[in-house]
Each structure stands twice: as structure tokens, then as C-alpha cells.
Amino acid sequence: MELTEGQVCGVYQIGPKLSKGAMSVxxxxxxxxxxxxxxxxxxxxxxxxxxxxxxxxxxxxxSLVHENLVHVAELTEIDEVPTLVMExxxxxxxxxxxxxxxPLAESMALFKGMVRGVGHAHKAGIVHRNIKTEKIxxxxxxxxxxxxxxxxxxxxxxxxxxxxxxxxxxxxGTPQYMAPEQFRDVSSVDERADLFALGCILYEMTCGRRAxxxxxxxxxxxxxxxxxxxxxxEIKPNLPDRIDRVLVSLLEVDVxxxxxxxxxxxxxxxxxxxxxxxxAAAGTGxxxxxxxxxxxDGTATPADSQRVATPESVAEExxxxxxxxxxxxxxxxxxxxxxxLASIAIALLLxxx
Length: 353
Known about the structure:
Blueprint: E1 8-9, E2 12-20, E3 24-31, E4 37-43, H1 48-62, E5 72-78, E6 81-87, E7 91-93, H2 94-97, H3 104-123, E8 126-127, E9 136-139, E10 146-149, E11 156-157, H4 163-167, H5 180-184, H6 191-207, H7 217-226, H8 232-235, H9 241-250, H10 262-270, H11 275-282, H12 302-309, H13 325-352
Antiparallel strand pairs: 1-2, 2-3, 3-4, 4-6, 5-6, 7-9, 8-11, 9-10
């Protein structure tokens, strides 16, 4: 579905197209009465069951009000297409923000907001399940950058409804940020999977690279499931010990060895108020490498930043490898079937011999 800039849909005057995915398109918009600016995400192209998942995610995000979460103001329809009306964030995505070096103190202040935002969702019984740098917005409208967690389309809700959607494996997450248990059984994950993802993001913010890199899903899963990543201190020898310890704990394969809540994580990093002094003592130059190519013009306009920062399609982007959630589910189902068949074959051989 395509809208035209200047077109009026209900109380919203459509602005420029900000992003387009396999199952959604997002436009800037102005409320015709209040003149407030919004981002409208139209969801389409999915089957009825997956579309219900997207709508449930939108409802969950609408229920959350916190300064470190992107607010959904309204769920509506435009030409019978389900539409999220979201606050417009003047800034960029964390993924784009990380393309240039930043002082460690600024990165840790930004991470504090992420922990607070995700913690607020957890206390409301909502597990995000797809936290990654593209889903974090860096709001540049204030005196200091602040983080806003976005796109709750793949959430797990702490209630009895919607379980069938999860059990069918409709959605998984993004391999580079997925906890090992999320690969194995998406329906059983809890808040600690989001904490693992936050660990992956903190690693990226402090070390200048991803903890788990690779071009194949199985390669990334193997690294995640075995805790195979370069130790932070090997990459950044002057990384404060506190941050190093927290990173290692967040990326534990055993969920019981991770921080058990965002409150615990917050206390470990910021609770005693000493982190700022430790960061200052570590010196400058952290974290800092440019990971990817900056846009040719080197600029990021509000429309450009929202194109990256607005919730993207929950299709190809949801895996980070150009794989749709359904194909992603099929791949893992095939792997699981191979394991079962191999086990049966071994059992039969044992019976014979």
C-alpha cells in the first residue's frame, strides 16, 4: 500500500516515506489539529496469524509509557490497514550512532537508559525478544543523547493469550543478539534473554565490534551456545573491570549465571555511583572504532534517522541475515528433525548390535 505525501488520512497529513519493509511501510505525518509530528507504520502483507502478532506487539508497546521507550500513541487503520501511530524521534538509531566513535562515558549513559526502558517493560510482563542496535533510538532533541527502545513486534506477553503464535515459531529474533536458549525454544524464554541481548549491545558499544559474528546462522548459534567470543579485555585492555565483569556475566550461556533482572544489572553498573570515576580513570579512546561506512553525505536528517530508527519490517530484518521469520523457523525445524532422525538411527543400531 502506498500513500502520497500531502494526502490526509483521518487526522493525519502524510509526510515523506521513512522506511519500507516486506510487511510494513512507515511515513512521517502531521496531526492536522495539534500539528504534532508522528511516524505512521502501516502493517500489511502478512498472513492473518502473523498480522495478529504484529497487532499484539503494537498493543503491548502502546501500554508502555516511559521516557526510554518509544511511545505508541494510537492503533488505528488507514484504508483498513492496521497502523501504529508512534512518537517521532529526532535522532538516529544506535546502529548508525555507533558508526562513529563516542566517549565511553557517553556510551554508558546511553546504556543506562536502555536498561531502564527494558526493565520497565519487564515489570509490565513484556519480554521484547528482538533487542538489537537497530531497535534502539538515540534521541538527539535534548541537551544529552538519550536512548529509546523501539519495536515490540516480537514480544512475549506474560499472559495466557497468544501462546499458539509463539509455539508455532512465527518469530525468533536476530541471531547476533539472541540468547542460546532462544535458538532452542523461543516459547520458553524470559527476561534473561533480553538481558543477554543487552549484553551483546554493551559489548558492541564498548568493544567496537559484535560479540558473535558470522555469515551463517549455525555459525552464530554455535558461538553463542558455547560462549565463544573475544574477551572484552583483549580488545580493550583499559576497559574498566566493572564493565568487563558485567559483560561476561550478561553473555553467560547458563541463564542462572546472568543478572536475573534489569534492576540487578542497573545496580551492578550504576548502583554505587562509582562508574563515572572508573570510566574517567580508564582514559580516552573508548570504545570507538568506526564499524561501518558512514553515509556519503555524512549527515543524518530527522527523516533519514527515522528511516533507520522507526520500527522496521519484522520480516527480513528480524533475523539480521536477510531471512524471513518463517524461513528462519523452517531452517531450525529442519535441523531439529535431523537431530531426531539421527537419534532414532543410533537407537536402532544399539538395538541391533
